[in-house]
Amino acid sequence: MSEALVSVEDLSISYASEAGDVQALRHANLEARKGEVIGIVGESGCGKSTLASAFINLVAPNAKVTSGAIRFQGKDILKLLESQKRQIRGRHIAMIFQDPMMAFNPVLPLGEQLIDFQEHRHDVPRSEKRARATAMLERVGIPDPAYNLGRFVHELSGGMRQRVAIAAALLMTPEILVADEPTTALDVTMEAQIIHLLRELRSDHDGAIIVITHHLGLIGELCDRVYVMYAGEVVEEGRTEDIYHNPRHPYTKALIDCDPAHLDEPVAFLPTIPGRLPDLVALPSGCSFADRCPIVQERCRTTSPRMIETGPQHRARCHEALR
Ligand SMILES: Nc1ncnc2c1ncn2[C@@H]1O[C@H](COP(=O)(O)OP(=O)(O)OP(=O)(O)O)[C@@H](O)[C@H]1O
Ligand SMILES: [Mg+2]
Fold first, then answer.
1. How far apart are alpha carbons 207 and 202 in whole angstroms?
2. How many C-beta atoms lie closer than 10 Å to residue 261's C-beta?
3. pLDDT value at position 292?
4. Which residue's C-alpha comes closest to atom 3 of ligand 1?
5. Does 282 have pLDDT greater than 70?
6. CA of residue 127 to ligand 2 center, whole Å
7. Rounded to 5 degrees, what are φ and ψ at 230?
8. Residue among 213, 12, 8 at smallest CA distance from 93
9. Nearest CA to ligand 1 atom 5
């Protein structure tokens, strides 16, 4: 197994709020190796975007890193100077946002911006940068790239915007590409096209790709390994096929049962997991899934479970994981 390209070690992040500190991420550990696509999955509010923001070193102003590190090229990127952080962002670690408008300036033609995204390539003349931008638009399936380079972001459809945002991220040739909910804003047909595109791209990207989603189907189609998050914690990790076919955490099982692809016949209402996330300002003692857990035991209410090895490359944070 190759060495980790990036590793998140014991990372905790909280947000200051009027109600108290929101513990959005707690002691998270994960890693991505060269050539690997990893998935991070969990329902809304479980801390996925908080983790993504840490990867690109753009945490919210009210966020505080209370423990841990993100190691990349031998350094903790969270401890770099602002100028060093800027150098890494984009060039080494790039992000595809849920809303592609975030990636672009509304008043500049796309071509100019796609050239600017390559600014670190001092060796490449501007004309060649333009040619690379044209080729990349072609690659992500934008028709008539030369014409579209002259357009503005608001002139494109949602699906085209997301394609151009993916092209922009790839032009920066990052070692690590983080995609935070890359298909959530799109309709089903567009979503399928973007998944297809990401799948094609994975074969010629030799770094690591980190796909963040609440949509389990996306993980199955794209990822080698999965991290399942619940209430700010990684509660299960493993190879995609093990997570799907042999989930060890009751939360992962519930997520799979709610996945439309797992239903035998069409239903009027998709199933959801009963109950809600705990209050991240006042977390319960014991397991944070206890209130919603179908197999909850007495000790789950008092003692936080630790990560338990349940098989090769497979771990779950549950007292009952080996049942
Ligand atoms: N700047 C902030 N200030 C205070 N609380 C925040 C801030 N950003 C996020 N949170 C809270 O932190 C928790 C985790 O949020 P985060 O955006 O990381 O979740 P997520 O898994 O990305 O959710 P979604 O699927 O809805 O995008 C949530 O309870 C959220 O309300
Ligand atoms: Mg999010």
1. 9
2. 9
3. 95
4. 15
5. yes
6. 37
7. -145, 125
8. 8
9. 15
Residue 51 alpha carbon, nearest atom of ligand 1: 18
Q: What backbone torsions phi and psi does residue 227 show, to the nearest 5 degrees?
A: -115, 125
Residue 299 in contact with residue 318, Cβ under 8 Å? no
Mean pLDDT of 31-37: 92
Measure 88 CA to ligand 1 centroid, in angstroms. 24
Q: How confident is the model at residue 154 (pLDDT cuts 50, 70, 90)?
A: very high
Task: Please choose from 13, 18, 46, 65 the residue to mutate so as to test ligand 1's pocket, defined by most ligand atoms within 8 A of CB.
Answer: 46
Asked if residues 92 and 72 have their Cβ atoms less than 8 Å apart, the reply is yes
- pLDDT at 191 (0 to 100): 77
Domains defined for the chain, CATH in brackets: 4-92+174-317 (3.40.50.300)
Q: Which ligand sits closest to the CA of 17?
A: 1
- pLDDT over 70 at 78, yes or no: yes
Predicted model pTM:
0.92
263: confidence class by pLDDT, cuts 50, 70, 90? low
Residue in the block written with tokens 């479980």: 46
**Average predicted confidence (pLDDT) for the chain:** 91
Is 27's pLDDT higher than 70? Answer: yes
Structure tokens at 205: 């990207």
Q: Percentage of residues in the chain with pLDDT exceeding 70?
A: 98
Question: Smallest Cα–Cα separation from 50: which of 5, 15, 85?
Answer: 15
d(CA 236, CA 252): 7
> How many whole angstroms separate alpha carbon 212 and alpha carbon 235?
15
Q: Which residues line ligand 1 (CB under 6 A)?
A: 15, 17, 22, 24, 42, 44-50, 60, 62, 214, 280
Angle made by CA atoms 167, 211, 208, in degrees to the nearest 5: 75
At residue 202, the pLDDT reads 78
